[in-house]
Write a structure and sequence with these properties.
Structural class: alpha/beta
Distance between the termini: 26 Å
Radius of gyration: 18 Å
CATH topology of the largest domain: TIM Barrel
Strand order of the largest sheet: 1-2-3-4-7-8-9
Oligomer: single chain
Number of domains: 2
CATH class of the largest domain: Alpha Beta
Order of helices and strands: EHEHEHEHHEEEHEHEH
Helix content: 40-55%
Largest sheet: 7 strands, parallel
Strand content: 15-25%
CATH architecture of the largest domain: Alpha-Beta Barrel
Length: about 250
């Protein structure tokens, strides 16, 4: 977590796959490090676009930021990510988070233990992606004698965790390879979050997660006035969405 930051790009389910591919090719040509995909309930599923982007590029890392374990069981996460790692020639990055609670609950799924759910998902997915036989009893998700039944491209796929509150940040320090910080979080919050994570990692006796991903809304246009208008519209939409969640988002 030292040196100059690398620049990445985020796509999402509001974009058709063809637009994602165009941006992936442009991002790779421009030397960006990673293309992240955000998947939220009831928007486009990201797999068609992610697969198409993997085929259209050679160097660009392609990551999910993030899957939640409620509508995608951690065993399914591991199955899909391991297969995608084959397709992308070892460029896949997995991100796991609790998701948007207000949307998850519309599927009649309980989200009352988000920290436990993410811990279970991280543990199960990590061990499966290492090629292990896994038996695990968690507070939310459990498995009994499972393994991935195909050869893995590698056994050290990076797994990042989305976290905002102190409990989640401490868990990230214990189990993840990196931290994902959402939109609308100012630099002071990020500095504080990284500090909490480093302290928790030291207490756990492990190195602090190496990668910190900070989502930042941007608008790029040749016309500065148009770019500022687009940026204002984007931030306004995000503020409205975050405000409506209140304290219900895990």
């Amino acid at each position: 977590m030292t040196g100059l930051p690398s620049i990445a790009l985020r796509a999402h389910g509001g974009m058709p796959p063809s637009a994602c591919v165009e941006q992936a090719v442009a991002a790779e040509r421009a030397g960006l490090s990673t293309l992240w995909f955000a998947e939220n309930p009831f928007t486009r599923g990201v797999w068609p676009a992610m697969a198409a982007c993997a085929v259209a590029t050679q160097r660009l890392r392609i990551g999910i930021g993030v899957f939640n374990p409620y509508n995608r069981h951690p065993t399914l996460m591991a199955m899909e990510m391991a297969a995608f790692d084959e397709l992308s020639a070892g460029r896949a990055v997995l991100g796991i988070g609790a998701g948007i609670g207000t949307k998850v609950r519309k599927m009649q799924l309980a989200t009352d233990r988000p920290i436990a759910a993410v811990r279970d998902a991280m543990t199960i997915a990590r061990r499966l992606l290492r090629g292990e036989d896994v038996s695990y009893t968690g507070k939310v998700f459990s498995v009994d004698g499972v393994r991935l039944e195909f050869p893995l491209r590698r056994t050290d796929m990076p797994i990042l965790m989305a976290a905002m509150g102190e409990q989640a940040l401490r868990l990230c320090a214990e189990v993840a390879d990196g931290l994902m910080i959402s939109n609308m979080c100012p630099p002071a919050y990020t500095r504080r979050a990284v500090g909490i994570m480093r302290e928790a990692a030291a207490r756990a006796g492990r190195p602090a997660p190496r990668e910190v991903v900070q989502y930042v809304p941007c608008a790029v246009r040749d016309d500065g006035d148009e770019a500022r208008r687009l940026a204002k519209d984007t931030v306004a939409a995000m503020l409205t969405a975050y405000w409506s969640q209140g304290t219900a988002s895990p």
